[in-house]
Amino acid sequence: MGSTNKYFFKDMSVMFGRSMRHIFRSMDTIITVCITPIAMMLLFVYVFGGAMETGAENYINYLLPGIMLMAIGSGIAYVAYRLFIDKERGIFERFHSMPIARSTVLWGHVLTSLISNGISVVVIILVALLIGFRSSAGIFEWLGVFGILGIFTLALTWIAVIAGLAAKTPDGAGAFSYPIIFLPFISSAFVPTNTMPSVVRAFAENQPVTPIVEAIRNLLANQLVGNEIWTALAWCIAIIVVAYIFAMRIYKKI
């Protein structure tokens, strides 16, 4: 056990490399993740954008944070699918027979999710720049944006780990992501919450996507970030802790 813990990071780097090779051998995964959010971004900017009353001069500036969260929600489905495939093929049993830290197998998938979703987000930002997105944010604001997105990705990825380990079919492994993908629609991602009916507004203002969107939007506009950033971080950290505990409990039973 001491030797296993000693080489934890070395073991994790090996598992991370294995998972990343799967990504680079099928880059269509990242392309597929980007297609739907980019299509939604183009649809809302060029079809619905003129009808949206957001108070922003440039609707793409208002819209982009929600689109990035949608892309991450779509990307984590592949984490659940790859974990399910590893479980069904008996890969976990093979790794468990080796003198490695058991949790590094999961961490390899989790770190790969951070990298692959980061690539997807960068692609979406580049497309947004082409269609008019502009930001006055400085380097520290951009670091804050990517920091929040990274923590959000980590939170959703651990939920994906639970889905992948607990699923009975490949479709079931990825199906959990659908509500997450559409959660930004019931938030301030596309329109201000004050335009919504009271019941919908109450839900929109008290779910995790809204404070995350607002924090990212203020950072990109180089505006003062209020309590939204702390609320966003609290949501993400709480999800990470709870999802990690449940994921590890399920993993130990495999």
TrEMBL record:
| InterPro entries, sorted | ABC2_TM (IPR013525), ABC2_TM_bact-type (IPR047817), ABC_2_transport (IPR000412), Nod_factor_ABC_transporter (IPR051784)
Q: Which residues form the ABC transmembrane type-2 domain?
A: 28-254
- Which spans are transmembrane here? 29-48, 60-84, 105-133, 139-166, 173-191, 229-251
Q: Which PANTHER family match?
A: NODULATION PROTEIN J
Q: Give the classification, highest ranks.
A: Bacteria, Bacillati, Bacillota, Clostridia, Eubacteriales
The organism of origin for this protein: Clostridium amylolyticum
Keyword Transmembrane present in the record's keywords: the answer is yes
Protein family: Belongs to the ABC-2 integral membrane protein family.
Query: Where located?
Result: Cell membrane; Membrane
> Which Gene Ontology molecular-function terms are recorded?
ABC-type transporter activity
The UniProt entry lists the main location of this chain as membrane
Q: Which Pfam families match?
A: ABC2_membrane
The name this protein goes by in its record:
Transport permease protein
Q: How does it sit in the membrane?
A: Multi-pass membrane protein
GO CC terms in record:
ATP-binding cassette (ABC) transporter complex
Alphabetized UniProt keyword annotations: Cell membrane, Membrane, Transmembrane, Transmembrane helix, Transport
